[in-house]
Structure formats: structure tokens, C-alpha cells
Amino acid sequence: MLSFRRTTREDLPVIQRWLRTPHVDRFWQHDTSDEAVERDFAGSIEGTEPSEDFVVELDGRPIGFAQRCRIFDYPDDHQDLIELADVPAGALTIDYFLGEPDVLGQGLGTGLVREFTRLCWAEYPDAPAIVVPVVASNVASWSALRSAGYNHTVTGHLEPENAADDGQHHVLRADRPR
Predict the structure, then answer these.
(1) Within a 13 Å sphere around the CA of 96, how many CA atoms are in the beta-carbon half?
(2) Under a CB-based contact definition with an 8 Å cutoff, are residues 99 and 58 in contact?
(3) Which of 7-16, 23-32, 129-138, 161-170 is predicted with the least confidence, judged by mean pLDDT?
(4) What range does the domain containing 66 cover?
(5) What one-character-per-residue DSSP string does 109-159 give?
(6) How confident is the model at residue 122 (pLDDT cuts 50, 70, 90)?
(7) How many domains are contained in the chain?
(8) Mean pLDDT for the stretch of residues 126-139
(9) CATH assignment of the domain containing 45
(10) CA 149 → CA 86, 117, 164, distances in Å?
(11) In Å, how far from its chain's centre is CA 66?
(12) Sequence-distant (≥ 6) Cβ neighbours of residue 61 within 8 angstroms
């Protein structure tokens, strides 16, 4: 069974290790120095950032990472997304990865997205939608979103994380269930 728990400082070395795995690095392209991991993930732990980070566990074993925020909490970072897609006020965005290579290819990505979406709806009862941009070449990610009930809304250019990508992104959206 998948579960989510807020990250702690003790999780930072695990997140760092996951960011260094080839399948995560391909799409996250994150600086994995101690300083960068501290800078970019400790704010969620300390409450100095509006984003919320989670360790994803499978039967108690840490296997991945998920994060969420309100899109308009970071308007500068999400300006291109706001201009490309229909982003209602109060909308969330999520990001995620499976960090452990031995759990890939088992449908857990879809389960992660589905369960994390349910958690978002429960904890953000006023959020009208979850809008997620995914690099078009990341088939596993946007397929997981589609399988979890998200709908493709638009494809367009957003600044890529990895210079190897052309910037084409699919934007997928889930609207709050009625």
C-alpha cells in the first residue's frame, strides 16, 4: 500500500541519492550537492516555503518523492505555464518520481499520482484543479497522469529542465470531483 509522509531532514540524503539515479536525473536535472539539496528541500521541512514535500512509501519502504504547491504561490516560476494553460485561481500543481529502480514498471507511478491526487483534494478542499506540465518525452510520467484520470489540455513550449529536451510539454489537468 502506498502512503505519503512529510519529509524530514533525515530524508535529505535519500532524496539526494534518488536525484542522482539516471532515471530521475534524466527529467529532474537537479543539482545534487549537499548545499543544493538543503536549499531546495529544507524549506518545505521548515515551513519557509509554501510547497510541501513528501516521501512516498510502499508498505513502509521509502520508494519515491512527491511535492505540491499552489501554482500562484510561485507566479514567477510558473508564468509560462499560466500563459500556456487555463490555470484557475487556487489550482495546485504536483511533481513526483519513483526513486528506487526496482519498483519501476509495476504501475506504481499511476498509483502514486492517483493517491497523491486524493490527498490533495482532501487537504485542499478549495483547490478547483491540479495542473501538471510534463516534458513530452517523459512518456512514463504523462501516461501515469492519464491513467490516474488527468486530461491532456494543451501541448506547448515551456523552459525544459534538461537541455537535451526541446521544451515541448504536455499539460494535464484534473478537476475537483463533484
Answers:
(1) 28
(2) no
(3) 161-170
(4) 2-175
(5) HHHHHHHHHHHHHHH-TT--EEEEEEETT-HHHHHHHHHTT-EEEEEEE--
(6) very high
(7) 1
(8) 97
(9) 3.40.630.30
(10) 18, 10, 29
(11) 5
(12) 100
Which amino acid makes up residue 38?
A: E
Residues shown for the chain: 178
- Rounded CA separation 29/142 (Å): 18
Q: Indicate the pLDDT class of residue 172, thresholds 50, 70 and 90.
A: very high
Q: What letter would DSSP give residue 164?
A: T
Q: What is the largest CA-CA distance in the chain?
A: 44
Contact assessment for residue 9 and residue 45, using Cβ atoms and an 8 Å cutoff: yes
Give the pLDDT band (50/70/90) at residue 163.
confident
- State the angle between helix axes of 34-46 and 12-20 in degrees (0 to 180), rounded to the nearest 10: 130
**Helices (H) and strands (E) in the chain — how many of each?**
6, 7
Q: How confident is the model at residue 79 (pLDDT cuts 50, 70, 90)?
A: very high
Element at 24 (helix H, strand E)? helix 22-28
Residues 88 and 124 sit within 8 Å (Cβ to Cβ): no
Over residues 51-67, the pLDDT tens digits come to: 999 999 999 999 999 99
